Amino acid sequence: MSSTKHLLLVEDDPDIAKLLADNLLEEGYRVDSVADGHAALAAIAGNRYDLLLLDVMLPGVDGLEICRRVRAGPVYTPIIIVSSKSSDVQRVVGLEMGADDYIIKPFALAEVVARVRALLRRVAALSEPVAVQADAVLVAHGLRIDAQSRSVALDGQPVALTAREFDLLHFFARHPGRMFTRLELLNQVWGYNHDGYEHTVNSHINRLRAKIEADPANPARILTVWGVGYKFAEADAADA
């Protein structure tokens, strides 16, 4: 394991923090550990981390607020929430705030390390240069979606998307006219340990529609198939 991966661990229980930090260090990661939300925000402001491990219940600023602030910033950082709050509602809230994964306490240390490793692998794969393919640039419904630069323009104007929003839009655009259930979208776009959190798909689609639809309440691009799921509208003749 490369020692260059720099992780921030935010955990106010000193015993749990030590166990996690020791195991992550053994894996070869660099680990900064802080015990409250304000210290976490200061650390994030002063460093470029490869991944954040966040507890939810923290002194000062809670983990969900930290997650929200990180996602509102210009740099995408993978986030895993580690929390004793185990209800489906809490997990959905965490994922909708932008977390990539949610681990419930008590946990097996090996599971945490495995999920850290898996998420870092996925992010690394997404950042690798891709071969030029026929669908490297997709054009449909006024959208220009560039897979290599991971950029989107609508009617010639750039659209700022999060990494997950881009993945979702690109997946839809590659399969115009095909209907996908929420679970299929989770498996294809989120990819890891998100079964049962279909509601987060709705949230991401609502945010995506707000950015690419003239009237998000009556979308023309990402369409709802009532009682089933969603699909991307088939291309107009002008897009061919």
Automatic annotation (TrEMBL):
Record domain Response regulatory: where: 6-120
Record's protein name: Response regulator transcription factor
Domain OmpR/PhoB-type residue range list: 135-234
Organism: Methylomonas fluvii
Keywords from the named record: DNA-binding, Phosphoprotein, Transcription, Transcription regulation, Two-component regulatory system
Pfam families membership: Response_reg, Trans_reg_C
4-aspartylphosphate PTM sites in chain numbering: 55
DNA-binding region in chain numbering: 135-234
Record InterPro entries: CheY-like_superfamily, OmpR/PhoB-type_DNA-bd, Sig_transdc_resp-reg_C-effctor, Sig_transdc_resp-reg_receiver, WalR-like, WH-like_DNA-bd_sf
